[in-house]
Amino acid sequence: MLSLCSPDPSNPGWIMISFEPTEDQLALREMAHSFAENELRPVTEHHDTTGEFPHEVLRKAHSLGLMNLHIPERWGGLGLGVMDGCIIAEELAWGCSGIATAMEANGLALHPVIAGASDLLMEKYVAPMMERYSMAAYALTEPGAGSDVQALRTKAVKQGDRWILNGSKMWITNAGVADWYFVVAVTDSEKKARGGMTAFIVEREWKGVEVGKKEWNMGQRCSDTRGITFEDVEIPEENVVGEVGMGWLLAMKTFDKSRPPVAAGAVGVARAAMEHALRYGTERKTFGRPIATHQAVGFMLADMATKIEAARLLVWQAAAMADAGERNTMQASMAKAFAADAAMSVTTDAVQVFGGYGYSSEYPVEKLMRDAKIYQIYEGTSQVQRLIIGRELLSR
After folding, report:
1. Which among 133, 106, 373, 381 is positioned nearest to 261, based on CA atoms?
2. Residue 320: which of 21, 8, 13 has the closest Cα?
3. Would you state the pLDDT for residue 147?
4. What is the 3-state secondary structure of 140-191?
């Protein structure tokens, strides 16, 4: 673990840095890796081919405590930190990032609810998720509003003791299997993001909620991605999450905690690709010796390992800062951008190491390359992360 401590008052400028995981974190990593190896990898090809949602695997994960990691102990959860989540996320994505994304999407929906919801909402929607297997989804992106949150068109209008919701969301992970959605809607068209967006919990079975068809994606195919349409959906006043008008801020703060585990997932995918490439490179021979001993291939493997280590360190830094209560917006974006780009680079090179075999679906690296691409897109594109980093630098 990377621990960032404040300078010692008696020794200005001194900072202690530790990379030693706790016994609990080592146990979490071992459990997550074992689960990934024994439960995820044996079924990853099936779910990639069919696109079938992995309910059976997720039920097992839920029973082991590998889901809904950050629910506070007060509500029956483990109350794990961001670092703990990153350690688990890397191992699960090493096994299958599609299944891992389905699991992690619950965490994305839960973060803003845990941060802003009333006790009533926590008791009604969050606490039961520890008792029984169930799913949730974070519904922010719209057909015309991805990175540009100011372009949100979904609106909620107050009528008596209820809000009437109209609009649509797009590319929502877990949309077809979730029991409820964390939804952000415009409640003041003049203010928009500056106090004019409000967050709600919306149940999938409510009248007026229509879930679209499953998208057949390039990679992570078992992750359930769909559009959602809201037509005159009535939301009780008590289902407002946080303060009215503060939904955008609540949604954005979520990314400081959710982006490090997503970046950790990218590290897991890259690590899996490198391991396959290294194994193949030592077995495949040309000109009388393993191809890994040729400089052309050896340098590729060296670059893979370097990018993976660097990405993990950025992830750990962002996670440690979040757990310490420090503002980590820039570090979370750095981790997300670098790890995503590293995963795409490493998986592409892994395909190259395999040569013609790498281009075949009979070998594992082509799937890893397809899976890696989405890390440069969801939870904020790599380009958006760079905008955030630049803005943070200029604001100092």
Report:
1. 106
2. 21
3. 73
4. CCECCECCCHHHCCCEEEEECCEEEEEEEEEEEECCCCCCEEEEEEECCCCC
Return the closest-CA partner of residue 293 out of 250, 216, 366, 353.
353
* Region of poorest pLDDT, from 8-22, 195-209, 314-328: 8-22
Question: Which residue spans within 41-148 are E strands per DSSP?
Answer: 136-139
Structural domains of the chain, with CATH:
23-131 (1.10.540.10), 136-248 (2.40.110.10), 255-394 (1.20.140.10)
Token pair 């990853």 in the structure block, residue: 44
Amino acid at residue number 9: P
Q: Per the structure block, which two tokens stand in for 332?
A: 């979370």
CB 72 within 8 A of CB 211: no
| pLDDT of 151 | 84
Q: Which of 149-153, 294-298, 309-313 has the lowest mean pLDDT?
A: 149-153
Q: What is the pTM assigned to this prediction?
A: 0.94
Q: Which of 90, 91, 366, 379 is catalytic?
A: 379
379 is catalytic: yes
With contact defined as beta carbons under 8 Å apart, do 223 and 171 qualify?
Answer: no
| Helix or strand holding residue 289 (H, E) | strand 289-290
Residue corresponding to tokens 């790599």:
382
Q: Which of 142, 90, 140 is nearest to 111 (CA)?
A: 140
**Locus of tokens 């397809």:** 370
Predicted confidence (pLDDT) at residue 7 exceeds the cutoff of 50: no
pLDDT average, residue stretch 103-109: 95
**DSSP for residue 41:** G
269 or 147, higher pLDDT = 269
What are the residues whose beta carbons fall under 8 Å from the beta carbon of 63, sequence distance 6 or more?
Answer: 133
**Sign for the pseudo-dihedral over CA of 80, 86, 87, 92:** positive
Residue type, 101: T
Q: How far apart (Å, rounded) are the C-alpha atoms in residues 304 and 326?
A: 31
